[in-house]
Design a protein that fits this description.
Radius of gyration: 17 Å
Strand content: 35-45%
Number of domains: 2
Number of helices: 4
Number of strands: 14
Distance between the termini: 18 Å
Helix content: 10-25%
Largest sheet: 6 strands, mixed, barrel
Order of helices and strands: EEHEEEEHEEEEHEEEHE
Structural class: mainly beta
Length: 193
C-alpha cells in the first residue's frame, strides 16, 4: 500500500524495561543452565529469557533484570535514567551497539560475578522497522522523526529510525519516557517525518 501525502503515520508504543544482552562467553561465567525462552518479542527472533541477574553499581543494585536472547556479539546493559540513579551510574544515551566510552557495570548471576567495561547505556528512543516498511514510509535507517503524543500529558519526542531485517514496526521508549508522557505498551501515536 502506497502512503498518500496526507495520510498520518500511526505507530505503536513498546516500553522497553531495563534488560541485558550477553555474549555466549559472558553468559557461561554467570549461569550453569542453558539460555531459554520465557516469551518471544515482537522483534523477530528475539525473546525475553527465563534467566535474570542482578545489576550492581557503585551505589546500589537492581535485582531480577531480564536477559534478552539470543546471544549477541557484544555485551550491553540498557537502563533508564531512574535506574542509573539507583545504581550510581551515568550512562550515555546511545544507539544500541554504540558502547565506546559507556559505563562500567557489574552483573551478578547464580554462578558468579562479572564486571563489564563499556557496556551500559541508556538507549536512544527508536522506531523499529524492516526495509519494506521503511520504503513504504519513505524513511531510512538513522532518520530522525518526531513522535506526537496526544493525551493528558501529551507532547512531542524525537526518535531514530532503526531498519533491520527482523524489524517489527513499533516505537521503543524506556519506562521513564513512558511515565513522563503517560504512555503504555500498545498505545498508538503519530510519527511525523
Amino acid at each position: 500500500m502506497k502512503l498518500k501525502p496526507q495520510e498520518k503515520i500511526i505507530g505503536t508504543i513498546a516500553i522497553s524495561n531495563r534488560h541485558v544482552h550477553l555474549t555466549k562467553e559472558v553468559y557461561a561465567e554467570l549461569f550453569e543452565e542453558t539460555l531459554s525462552m520465557k516469551r518471544p518479542l515482537n522483534q523477530i527472533g528475539e525473546y525475553a529469557a527465563n534467566q535474570t541477574l542482578t545489576l550492581k553499581g557503585p551505589k546500589g543494585t537492581i535485582e531480577n533484570v531480564r536477559l534478552i536472547g539470543p546471544f549477541r556479539k557484544y555485551n550491553q546493559v540498557e537502563i533508564a535514567r531512574s535506574d542509573a540513579l539507583i545504581l550510581g551510574l551515568n550512562p550515555p544515551v546511545r544507539h544500541s551497539g554504540d558502547l565506546e566510552d559507556s559505563e562500567t557495570i557489574t552483573l551478578i548471576g547464580p554462578k558468579g560475578e562479572v564486571t563489564l567495561n563499556n557496556a551500559c547505556i541508556q538507549a536512544e528512543r527508536h522506531v523499529h522497522m524492516n526495509a519494506n516498511k521503511a520504503k513504504e514510509l519513505k524513511l531510512k535507517d538513522e532518520d530522525l522523526v518526531h513522535v506526537k503524543i496526544e493525551n493528558d500529558k501529551g507532547g512531542m519526542m524525537e526518535a531514530f529510525v532503526k531498519v533491520t531485517d527482523n524489524g517489527f514496526f513499533e516505537i521503543h521508549i524506556d519506562k521513564d519516557d513512558a511515565c513522563c508522557f503517560l504512555l503504555n505498551t500498545g498505545d498508538e501515536v503519530e510519527i511525523e517525518r
